[in-house]
Write a structure and sequence with these properties.
With about 60 residues, the protein is of the alpha+beta class. It has 2 helices and 5 strands. Helices cover about 15% and strands about 25% of the residues. The longest helix is centred in the N-terminal third of the chain and has 6 residues. InterPro entries: Trm112-like.
């Protein structure tokens, strides 16, 4: 099962970027949650979003 399949719509609707407090979107491959406003992508590991700024990568 992919990380994207593990995240349901409800969870995606309540998660926000810890840096900007704006909505996140799922990356095309489903492996990250992207904050377009912050320019950061947060990894999803074993179906769990890692919303730590120090773990995010620049996009």
């Amino acid at each position: 099962m992919t990380a994207a399949a593990m995240l349901d719509e409800w969870l995606l609707s309540i998660l926000v970027c810890p840096a900007t407090r704006t909505r996140l979107r799922l990356s095309e491959d489903g492996s990250e949650l992207v904050s377009d406003e912050a320019g950061l992508a947060y990894p999803i590991r074993d179906g769990v979003p890692v919303l730590l700024i120090e773990e995010a990568r620049r996009v």
